Amino acid sequence: MAASYWDSTQRRFWEFSKEQLAALRQRKLDEERSLVQMYPLPEWRHLSLYFSQQLNRLAKRMQVRQQALATAQIYLKRFFCKVEIRRTNPYLVMATALYLACKTEECPQHIRQVVQEAKVLWPDTHCLEISRLGETEFWMISELSSQLIIHAPYRTLQMLQAELNLTPDELTQAWSVVNDHYMTDLPLLYPPHVIAVTSIVWVLVLQPAMPGGTNSSGGGIGLMGQTMGTPAGGGNSVGNNSNSQGAMGMGMGGGPSSLPPPPMLLSLSSLGPGSSTPGGTPGTPIMGGIGTPTTLGGFPGFSARSAMALHAQAQAAQSNQMQHMSQGGQAAPGTYNNAQGSNTNAGGHSGTPTEEAPPADNSRTATMQWLIRWLAESGLDMEATIDCTQEMISFYMASEEYNEKLTREQINRFVKARGLDR
């Protein structure tokens, strides 16, 4: 495999511009014009959210690692870039993606267990048989051109935690933003280090000041409305390849937060780094509870108007960053790969963009000023970071219009009408 993201098939073959991705999907629609007209489907964002929900629920039943779940979500996106969704049974494809991802991330699940759990979760899908899943696995590998290694943002996020002096709450929140980005097209558009930095900017810049200090329990409310755990602070070591990211545990502890959750924290899962299974085996993450979204952000009062306010706040903060860069912020020699170091061999030592340490007093103003300087000196593509932030805000706004029942009915309609459930 490619230990470095820069040499990986992910970078060379599976990152597109927005125009390229739109053209690829439109070409598939044009090739299947009659099916598209006969079986209309919701917009892609709603389909992606539905698929993510279903994969989360299946992964929870099987106690699959977060890294494997993230890989499965990317496999699904890539597969549907090559194959028109109406030509498939999406439930069989989702089960296959998770089964294959568990193999790739070295936490394999027995095919019999995958089929059994999928049947319980989707009882109306009669084609969930071992032989059919095996056939679909070979089909998926073929459509993905056997390019199965995925580099995720989690490792970068953990490396930057120490450098940026992130608190456990901030790391948990940034982790949640990374989880949520798999419901968007961002994994097909930008490198994982850009996503990781975006999640940090999201937490440190866009997060409104919360009265009363930090969250004592470390919990936040996700998109599904459940409590998020706090990173337990356990030192999970980073391995020499991307699969080692799966060893980062998922926090399950803590009671409900005593403070209202920050509006931007809309996580699909109660996952956070650094815990262990109930049985006590360190570094073996498990899945959090998955519910059904009711209000955006999992709590009352966060609406499209709130998202619009966040959008304006993001534009203002990012304008300040760009202004600082235009006033002479130059990248220090050898610092460009610092934010990207998670995708190289873990044995290397990353340099720091600036000799100045993060403010120790956790002053919001001082932290934001320091972060802006750090970004200006890091050599990171700020336009990409800005675009990622705006895409996440846009996705959260669109999520308010999501109707799971309607999406499920439209998918089931073409599956049954075309006999894909047999």
From TrEMBL:
Region listing for Disordered, in residue ranges: 217-299, 313-363
Comp. bias (Gly residues): 280-291
Key words of the record: Cyclin
Compositionally biased region (Low complexity): 265-279, 313-327
Biased segments, Polar residues type: 335-353
Domain Cyclin-like span(s) in chain numbering: 53-142
InterPro entries: Cyclin-like_dom, Cyclin-like_sf, Cyclin/Ssn8, Cyclin_N
CDD domains referenced in this protein's UniProt entry, alphabetically: CYCLIN_CCNC_rpt1 (cd20513)
Short name of one Pfam family: Cyclin_N
Family assignment from sequence similarity: Belongs to the cyclin family. Cyclin C subfamily.
Protein's recorded name: RNA polymerase II holoenzyme cyclin-like subunit
Source organism per UniProt: Sporothrix bragantina
